[in-house]
Amino acid sequence: MSEGEQERFEIVGAIAVYGAPDELAEGVVKAREAGFTRLDAVSPYPLHGIDRLLGKGPSRLGYIAAAAGLTATILAKTAQWWVSAVDYPLNIGGNPLFALPAFVPVTFELMVLFASLTTVIAMLAVFNGLPRYRSALLRSTFIRQLTCNRYALVVDAGDKRFRADTILEDLSGPDVEAVELLRREKPSLYYRERILSVPFLVLILAVAIFSSTATRLAFRYGGELPLYNFMKHQTRLAAQAPGQSSALIRPVEGTVARGFLPYAYKGRPDEAGTNLVNTLPITAANLARGRGRYTVFCQPCHGRLADGRGTLTAAFPKAPTLHSKKVREWSDGRIFAVLTEGQNLMPNWEAQVSRDDRWLTIHYLRVLQRSQHAPEQDLP
Amino acid sequence: MSQVITDRGGEFKHFDQATFAQVDDDIAAPMAYIPGRTWWIALAVSSSLMLLGFSLMAYTVANGVGVWGNNSPVFWAFPIVNFVFWIGIGHAGTLISAILFLFRQPWRNAIARFAEAMTIFAVMTAAMFPVIHMGRPWLAHWVFPYPNDMSIWVNFRSPLVWDVFAISTYFTVSLLFWYVGLIPDLAAMRERAATKVHRVIYSVLSCGWTGLSRHWRHYERTYLILAGLSTPLVVSVHTIVSFDFATSVIPGWHTTILPPYFVAGAVFSGFAMVLTVLIVVRRLFHLEHIVTMRHLDHMNKVVLATGLMVGYAYGVEIFTAWYSQEEAEIFMIINRMTGPYWWAFALMFSCNVLAPQVHWSARARRSIPIMFAVSILVNIGMWFERFVIIVTSLHRDYLPGSWGMYKPTLVDLGILAGSFGLFFTLVLLFVRSLPVISMTEIKAGLPGAQISKQLRVPAKLPAVEEANV
After folding, report:
1. Which residue in A24, B44, B291, B325 has a CA-CA distance of 20 to 30 Å to B395?
2. B156 neighbourhood in chain A, CB within 8 Å
3. By residue range, what is the domain housing residue A284?
């Protein structure tokens, strides 16, 4: 080791290597009797009973696991209650929204997950201070043997009895195979042993700045790049858009939809009354059809008997009776004009009821009028 | 600056250090040399199957699940059969590593690592099936509850949601358990590493483990806690998988024996799979002196015991159908045994109940050809058990008008073959990259490995502080 390297490194402890567990155990007791207090044992596998010799009780990780499990249980139950009973209450077969037994499986799984993760992370990072890649032990010449078939006693340089010049003799003994000073690079501003070292934090910061900048730029200039395409986002052709030759194209100029011939007497109901004639035959089927249209479109306001006593009168102005002399004396064409164009508060039905259906409705209206004003000769 | 003061030149006082070094050498051997032709042939076959499976999955995703045989009334069919089969395979690993650990069965040490790895690979294989079965794998995250712009949540009263939590927890905890067990071995591999690349990888993975007793103290407690948590976890996982069936009203599914029946079946099939693979691996990598006949004998006893439990469950299903005098249940059992899928039931019954009976004989339990044959038969039988449960229950339910038959397509069969390819590819890569047997646990159990002297510690010594080296 050159002079420059000597300066970069500092002595942080010493180890004594033993060849067998029993020898290590005796070495630990002897070192403690000699007054060493900052010491530990190294072994390639857990040595049972070494904790007693070092005066250490069992690990307290169980409390961590219990606390994590309990926290997860409470959180999981609360979250499931909030989701299922408060934020998104779904009635499924009338079952209770807060179904305690049904929430047990997820609660249990989350308890196990949270407790396991917490225990392992606490064991590694908190209790053992890992990952730790710059431990002085890792620089020892004997580390390979110490992970295979050798055992060691470690003394920290911070021990009150530690003297760098005599420690190797202090640790020697008939059972000791080898002794060695442990060295480590001196800590500097940029270097700490733990994962929270300056270079690592700088790296994290750099990654954060880079990724957020890249994301921002990607959204700014690249637009959103969805991973997959929902139907509502996909390209499509609008129906009857001008100038397109595929999809649903615009009808030729002057095209008329079936059953919807243009109405020639717009704004001239009396002319319609004189010129338009109901040509559809009066048959049982036609009257049934007319009755159906009447029931759907007329009855709510004009009533079942066309007497103006409809069911919608609470919300709407009362519709007039259709048994007035005026309406009875109107020609079919005059009534057709009302159905087609509307009148006062009555809407027009041109779009909803086809031309033929309007004529059939008028046939049925005549039936109603005759039923309420039956002349004597109609009686049997 | 080291100073060797005693060189004993191979003269050991209490125990044999050479044995310890030999254990490490033997276990690390498969990673140290260029593998033989057998390994390459095996890898070529299994990775080709894996690629076949992946291509057929891509084909399915591109064309929709209509390329499978699933159709009314059998909508669950192959994907769910394979899912339940592979999840079950995983259960043996956790049983060996956690439950046998809690019961202090030291023979588990030789097989625990391998079985845990198989658990992880099996769960990975299994988890693919629900994802592709849902048809739009790019929306698979919808099964998890997360705040979303659709303002909806998953239904926490549905067993399918429980399944999501059970499988993902099971995978995570198995991975943790496996990794925690690996840390000291990774440290040993770090020190044995032949190249710089190996050294860096093993260094990072081993977290700088040095084997301080302070670390071992927390490490061992963590291992115990994980074993304690994994034990109810493994029982819960297949219980919840069985809830997918048991909470429905389909005859053959709607039964309370399903949870214990599924768990026993899972352990049964898992042990069979561990046996199948381990018999090959110990032969291929010359580990017969570490995974000995005694281990295989114990595993065969577990196979026999769980096989009897599974047989008992078959019996109870038949008895319950008769005892309930429920027409649909009786019909289901009769249809299952004598209907169009009678051959699947016969295969299941003979492979799962009859075949393991040879293990009553100690000679059969210690004969490699016999136990290998039985383990293969049990694997086949347990796959068909899931086929019987799913297909024969669904294809004829209450309404004869909706009866139908199920026939898998070539795509179905290809994806099943692909799942075996994926599993064995992962196993083959694992045996070449990580220690398949725990060096640490084997060494800790060797004669003379522990402190044998009863040392007295004087009472008035100052307390030991942390040595921070």
Report:
1. B325
2. 80, 83-84, 102-103, 106
3. 269-374
